[in-house]
Write a structure and sequence with these properties.
The chain is α+β, with helices and mostly antiparallel strands. The chain has one domain (2-201): Metallo-beta-lactamase, Chain A, CATH 3.60.15.10. The protein has helices at 33-42, 57-60, 63-70, 81-84, 149-160, 182-188, 190-197; strands spanning 2-8, 13-20, 23-27, 46-51, 74-77, 91-94, 98-102, 105-111, 120-124, 127-131, 134-135, 138-139, 167-170, 179-181. The strands form four sheets. It has a six-stranded mixed sheet with strand order 7-8-9-10-13-14. A four-stranded mixed sheet has the order 1-2-3-4, with no helix packed on it. It has a two-stranded parallel ribbon with strand order 5-6. The longest helix is centred in the last third of the chain and has 12 residues, at 149-160. The protein is globular. Bound molecules: zinc ion. Zinc ion binds next to loops.
Length: 202
């Protein structure tokens, strides 16, 4: 399995291209569908599925074009469907924890509300796509309309229990950095450390 980060748009968003044997998944395709189509074509990839970590516009913007062109419906947690503003015909809503087999990819979806009500992290092998839940040294904003700081703490605790070598791929490259490891965040991320410290009173 290969993972490529594609930086698109003016908000340091990260779209992830996950590939294996000519098959591809896209996580949070947004902003520039032409660039993504060109990448798929140049690499001769068969796009099997699109998954959104959450419904904020900067993670889904213009994805409708790509979904329609490929006849796909994007996986999205049902609590973020309205937030996404995307038409129902291009969405595949689900609720709760999921195990999906998509071609050669075993995908485990972990609900991680807090930044938004329908936010999730997407685990494929030991790669964890954290959207705006967990960033290197930080977590996502919890002051937005569908945010919930208490849920965020619970979600960060849940992520802290994943194996040490779980590799993190965040939804933005704030400060130029979008990658880390759970072991490192568990030791150094003040938000995750607080979530662990407060786990019994959450
Ligand atoms: Zn967001």
């Amino acid at each position: 399995m290969n993972i490529e980060v594609i930086h698109l748009g003016p908000m340091a968003n990260c779209t992830y291209l996950v590939t294996q044997d000519g098959n591809a998944l896209l996580i949070d395709p947004a902003w520039d569908m032409n660039a993504l189509e060109q990448t798929l074509k140049a690499k001769k990839l068969n796009l099997l599925a699109v998954l959104f970590t959450h419904g904020h516009f900067d993670h889904v913007k213009t994805a409708e074009t790509l979904l329609k062109a490929h006849g796909l419906r994007a996986y999205i947690e049902e609590n973020d469907v309205l937030l996404s503003g995307l038409p129902g015909e291009v969405l595949q809503p689900y609720h709760g924890e999921q195990n999906l087999q998509i071609g050669p990819f075993k995908v485990h979806i972990i609900p991680t509300p807090g930044h938004t009500a329908g936010g999730v992290c997407i685990l494929i092998g030991d790669a964890l796509f954290t959207g705006d839940t967990l960033f290197p040294g930080a977590c996502g904003r919890v002051d937005l309309p569908s945010s919930d700081p208490r849920e965020m703490r619970k979600s960060l605790y849940r992520l802290s229990q994943l194996p040490d070598d779980t590799q993190i791929f965040a939804g933005h490259s704030y400060g130029g950095k979008s990658g880390s490891f759970i072991s490192y965040e568990r030791q150094t991320n003040p938000f995750m450390r607080n979530a662990i410290k407060d786990k019994d009173i959450l």
